[in-house]
Design a protein that fits this description.
The protein has 494 residues and is an alpha/beta fold. The protein folds into two domains: 3-229 and 461-493, Rossmann fold (3-Layer(aba) Sandwich); 235-446, Class I glutamine amidotransferase (GATase) domain (Rossmann fold), CATH 3.40.50. It is built from 15 helices and 27 strands. The strands form seven sheets. The protein has a seven-stranded mixed β-sheet. A six-stranded parallel β-sheet has the order 2-9-1-10-11-12, with helices on both faces. A four-stranded mixed β-sheet has the order 3-6-7-8. β4 (44-46) and β5 form a beta hairpin. Keywords: Cobalamin biosynthesis, Glutamine amidotransferase.
């Protein structure tokens, strides 16, 4: 048996609910897989076979105790700007499309998505399906392959998640149910009220009123919990301040307009003061500056140049501040970017920040997607202390490193003093060795003691402790017996 988790809006907690359900089933010995037919996110993950999927589905897979795979997120949309998105189909680049043209593809993509679901169902027996955004987007019903059209194809029980922290939870739930198509509304088997601040018992009368208004049982009121799981999309950046630390070590991550995979820095966020700094804001006073990945290197480079970021980076370099580029940020730190019309509409050459003597070329619609394990070999005080690290590459373009030393075996570059380096490796700072190497150096420069990060920290994508904590929290506040009844077939199979 399987179920669908839909939401009253974006960012209400659908992804976390699916992860919690997957972990709860896993803890009961019931095989299960996560699934999201269509995801729009610049935070992605590369599977063992080189497929690219949304990071939320990778997190959910780890919660379920299984390896992430392309069928778990058959359609991934990666916005590039100007209403253009790259469509990743079954883990591989399909095409770049204008949003208005994308909807011509929905019949084909829905067929692919349903087939992917059926493959997962056949292998695992149980699938927890996540919708996208709000379920009641009435203007999209004819092309909504993540919610309504998928629900119509699968005919599974629906669990509706609402966010009480936003306010208006009664209108959220009642309005969503009222607007659902008549053939979909009866499939809604339960409601979860999420992100409650305080004692959930205080909302007992609210639960009664919701059930009276809708005729649908409220299966739980889940309190807000700050459990360290990777962020799903750009909406999560606004929450970054809530996980602040009192550490005197300050790290600036440039908040690029098309920033991608900012989950790279969430382990750092637990142990240093990490600020996501918009273009134009001052970079003085930071102990380290990181240029993250981006979905469009040349357009974000143009934005940074217009705000004078290059001059600030060069000033920081003169002060001995470490500067690190990841993926698109690595490309920007180079001397030139030669684009044959892949990143921009017409072929052109762009001047980078010039802190690394490398040249990047975009010569074809090819994307590198691969998991990697490498040893840091670069010079200086930071890289040699990292040891062996693992991560994944997701990028267009190839970079020629010239005469500079490698940062890692076979990849990346560093200046001779090792204080500026670039790499294509996403997930570098999810390795405790890399985090300890950077923070130990920054702490020494500040003259403060540094306590190494423990290997078992919850920042890792596959950290079991965080998933178990999430499942326990969920089970404590949700009627799991009612939900488990929907998985009775899978329970017998397990």
């Amino acid at each position: 048996m399987s179920l669908i988790v839909l939401g009253t809006a974006s960012h209400v907690g659908k992804s976390v609910t699916v992860a919690a359900l997957c972990r709860a089933l896993y803890r009961r010995g019931i095989p299960v897989a996560p699934f999201k037919s269509q995801n729009m996110s610049l935070n992605s993950y590369v599977t063992a076979d080189g497929s690219e999927i949304g990071i939320a589905q990778a997190v959910q897979a780890f919660a379920a105790g299984v390896e992430p795979e392309a069928d778990m997120n058959p359609v991934l949309l990666k916005p590039r700007g100007d209403s253009v998105s790259q469509v990743v189909l079954l883990g591989r680049p399909y095409k770049d499309v204008q949003i208005r043209d994308y909807y011509r593809e929905t019949d084909t993509l829905l067929t692919e998505a349903v087939a992917a679901f059926e493959r997962l169902q056949g292998r695992f027996g149980n699938v927890v399906v996540e919708g996208a955004g709000g379920a009641a987007e009435v203007n999209l019903y004819d092309r909504d392959i993540a919610n309504i059209r998928l629900a119509r194809s699968l005919r599974l029980p629906i669990l509706l998640v609402a966010d009480i922290e936003r306010g208006g939870v009664f209108a959220q739930v009642y309005g969503t149910l009222a607007l659902l198509p008549e053939d979909i509304r009866p499939l809604v088997a339960g409601v979860i009220v999420n992100k409650f601040r305080g004692d959930p018992g205080l909302f007992a009368s609210g639960v009664t009123k919701l059930e009276e208004l809708t005729g649908v049982p409220v299966l739980g009121v889940v309190p807000f919990a700050d459990i360290p799981l990777p962020s799903e999309d750009s909406l999560s950046i606004a929450d970054k301040g809530e996980r602040g630390t009192a550490s005197p070590v300050r790290i600036a991550v440039l908040r690029l307009p098309r920033i991608s995979n900012f989950t790279d820095f969430e382990l750092l966020e637990e142990h240093a003061a990490v600020d996501y700094v918009p273009a134009g804001a001052p970079l003085s006073g930071y102990d380290c500056i990181i240029l993250p990945g981006t979905k469009n290197t040349v357009e974000d480079l143009d934005v940074l140049n217009r705000h004078g970021v290059g001059e600030e980076l060069r000033d920081a370099r003169e002060r001995g501040v470490p500067i690190i580029g990841i993926c698109g940020g690595y490309q920007m730190l180079g001397s030139r970017i030669v684009d044959s019309g892949i990143e921009s509409e017409t072929p052109a050459e762009y001047r980078g920040f010039g802190l690394l003597d490398v040249v990047t070329a975009f010569t074809g619609y090819r994307k590198t997607t691969v998991q990697v394990r490498r040893r840091a070999t670069g010079p200086g005080p930071i890289l040699p202390a990292m040891g062996e690290v693992e991560g994944y590459e997701i990028h267009m373009g190839e970079t020629e490193r010239g005469d500079l030393p490698e940062a890692f075996v076979g990849e990346g570059v560093a200046t001779p003093d090792g204080l500026v380096f670039g790499t294509y490796m996403h997930g570098l700072f999810r390795n405790t060795g890399a985090v300890n190497a950077l923070l130990a150096y920054l702490s020494e420069r500040r003259g403060i003691a540094f306590r190494p990060v423990a290997e078992a920290s919850g920042g890792a994508l596959g950290a079991a402790d965080a998933y178990d904590e999430l499942a326990r929290h969920f089970e404590e506040h949700v009627d799991m017996e009612a939900i488990m009844a929907w998985f009775r077939d899978g329970e017998r199979a397990g």
